[in-house]
UniProtKB/TrEMBL annotation:
Lineage: Bacteria, Pseudomonadati, Acidobacteriota, Terriglobia, Terriglobales
InterPro entries membership: Bact_response_regulator (IPR050595), CheY-like_superfamily (IPR011006), Sig_transdc_resp-reg_receiver (IPR001789)
Xref: SUPFAM superfamilies: CheY-like (SSF52172)
GO BP terms: phosphorelay signal transduction system
Name assigned to this protein: Chemotaxis regulator-transmits chemoreceptor signals to flagelllar motor components CheY
Residues carrying 4-aspartylphosphate: D55
PANTHER family: CHEMOTAXIS TWO-COMPONENT RESPONSE REGULATOR, STRESS RESPONSE REGULATOR PROTEIN 1
């Protein structure tokens, strides 16, 4: 079974862009439009999800609340989470990392930027 990556973003276009990059690295892609949908997917697929890429600004449950909810569940203690967002202030980055995000990618991004972050997290070689 292939390893799965969960992409969480309210923008369908952004999910498609990230999915193309991630699928190109050999992962199966799961998608959610907000944090609540993502939590439901994680609850069902938790043993196979190897990485989460999450937007910050989303309706229903934003990325920060999602990260906090994931980190509150011991099953996901080691699950890498990367915030992929337009939030560019250093203070926002610190908030996300303090909440439990492992890395931070600012939009707009390149394929190389995403791949570099995944290498840093040792998710890909």
């Amino acid at each position: 079974m292939p390893n799965k990556v969960l992409i969480v973003d309210d923008s369908r276009a952004m999910r498609c862009i990230l999915a193309k990059i991630i699928a190109g690295l050999g992962f199966e892609v799961l998608q959610a439009g907000d944090g609540l949908q993502a939590l439901a997917i994680l609850g069902h697929e938790h043993s196979q999800v190897r990485l989460v890429l999450s937007d910050w600004n989303m309706p229903t449950m934003d990325g920060l609340a999602f990260v906090k909810a994931v980190r509150a569940d011991q099953r996901f203690a080691a699950l890498p989470i990367v915030m992929v967002t337009t939030e560019t202030h250093i203070e926002q980055m610190i908030v996300a990392l303090s909440a439990g995000a492992n890395e931070y990618i600012m939009k707009p991004f390149t394929t190389e930027m995403v791949e570099d972050k995944l290498r840093m997290l040792q998710v890909v070689r």
